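Changelog note: in this version the structure field was regenerated for every chain. One regenerated record is shown below for reference.
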Amino acid sequence: MTTTPVAPAASPLARLRRWGTRPPAPPAKAAQFANPLAPWLFVAPQLLIVAIFFYWPSVQAVTSSFYLEDPFGFGSSFVGLDNYRDALASSEYRHIAGFTALFAASVTALSLGLGLLLAVKADAVMRGAGGYKTALISVYAIAPPVVGLIGMMMFDMHIGPFTRAAALFGWEMRVGIDYRDTALALILVAVWKQIPYNFIFFLSGLQAVPASVREAALIDARSGWRRFRDVTLPLLAPTGFFLLVINITYALFDTFGIIDVMVKDKPANNPITLVYKVYLDGFKGNDIGGSSAQSVILMVVVATLTVAQFRLIERRVHYG
């Protein structure tokens, strides 16, 4: 009489590895159109919007950057690369570029970190989860200028609650007058505005983690930090990479309304970003050529950062 050997049961970690290395699903069948022009008709409105509001202004900016424009529109003189040389040789421009880099890095890191922390905590809430999530998400519906107005009230030297709280520790905050105090207020307000956006995506990514994977990780590792680091965080890598690109773009461009409200008409030399300097030089100083050159430089910097992120970071992200 022969006995059939029984294969040992697979460990939870082995089942988790098999789940992560399972073959991809077969690709979905592509949609077929009877008329070959039908797909272009569907995307034509979006292409028209992109051409009018992005490509045409970009071409105009590049063209204007090589000219010295008359502020009253009576003519222009070709100056070649002089506008670029003046911008890059300016100590003020380099100082603003340094603050822009610090501002973008701080806003991106803090908003991503706090958004992920709140998403992890919200994902573990059992009672009252709906109200908790709604309270966190509702801030994203506020327009940036309104956020700047709220931030200005919070950091007001006379009635601001944050200013009064800082005074308890002997710190006299003078937002709008002191450079460092204003920079800190701008960063905190910009982070507060962006946290709900990151929270939404991180929470969706956490809820997409299969229950079987969570159970296997719970058996394999007792430490909650180890489970988050080895299982949850790698599964959130695609979401995190997407949010990294979005948050850098937000810090460089979408914070314009916040900065405009909080530093406009203030008596001191307050911190501003490169996109706000483009606005000041172009619309306040009537230097169309110089502001166009600055916008082209900023566009090249953002494009370089995006390509670098996809080249260096995207390779470490695993999809599927």
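Spot check on this record: Residues 128 and 228 are 23 Å apart (CA to CA). The mean pLDDT is 82.
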